[in-house]
Amino acid sequence: MKSKINQSKTLQNHVYEYLHEKIVNGFIPPGQRIVEEKVAQETGVSRSPIREAIRRLNSDGLVSVSPRGGVRVYRPTFSDFKYLYECRLGLEPTAAYYAALRMNEKQRNHLKNVVEEMNLMVEKKDLEKLKYFSTQFHFFIVEASENPYLMKMMKQLYSLMSFYRNAVLNIPMRLEDGAKEHQAVWEAIQTGNGKAAEELMRAHIQRDFQFYSSIYSDRQSEDSNTLKNSVKNV
Question: What is the distance, to the nearest Å, from the Cα of residue 196 to the centroid of all Cα atoms in its chain?
Answer without folding.
Answer: 24
